[in-house]
Amino acid sequence: MTSAALEILGVGLGILGWGGGILACGLPMWQVSAFIDVNIVVAQTIWEGLWMNCVVQSTGQMQCKVYDSILALQPEVQAGRALTVIVALLGLVALMVTVVGAQCTNCIRPSKMKSRIVMAGGAIYILCGVLVLVPLCWFANIVISDFYDPTVPPSKKREMGAALYIGWAATALLLFGGCLICCCSCSQRDETSFPVKYSAPRRPTSNGEYDKKNYV
After folding, report:
1. In terms of Cα–Cα distance, which of 186, 192, 74, 188 is closest to 141?
2. By percentage, how much of the chain surpasses pLDDT 90?
3. pTM of the prediction?
4. How far apart are CA 90 and CA 18, in angstroms?
5. Nearest to 178 by CA among 8, 14, 3
6. What are the transmembrane regions (predicted)?
7. Does position 166 have pLDDT exceeding 50, yes or no?
8. What are the φ/ψ torsions at residue 53 (nearest 5 degrees)?
9. For all residues of the chain together, what is the average pLDDT?
10. Domain ranges for the chain
């Protein structure tokens, strides 16, 4: 019963992490303008994401534009697009596989195969967390390197946006949820593989009494 509750918790964390990864993918705030030096007071803020860039005026008006050419994008943007889309698809697969093999469902009878299926779902959640982490760290490394690079003009310097922090939180949820599911599947496998021995029924003798060998 405890392993089933932990398994449900792991699935819930995986779903939250999956949703957070999709949210981070769609947000345009992967890189934002850095207000430093002569760029402290500006009339607009620039947001740059995987799919579009936005310009936010000091009056509150915002204008967004989708990137015109995919081939003209930076390598980190192209890789981020590909990996986050893969994560969105793999997250759905992980959810379906985990639900099929979960202890609270009757899609498959309790057996070693059922525990292996739910372990596969947990492994896919872990893979999703790793795939989300790659573009996040790539972007963070570029932003930090350009920020401290003296050859980059202040107007071109960027800071890490909210999408990166949301993505890191989603990564933690995916990894923790996947590990929790895998641990519960291991305990489920141990329970199903534990041999059960039954004692032979005692048979009465011809005179109606039980045989003495039935007693220890």
Report:
1. 74
2. 38
3. 0.79
4. 9
5. 14
6. 7-30, 82-102, 123-144, 164-184
7. yes
8. -125, 150
9. 82
10. 14-190
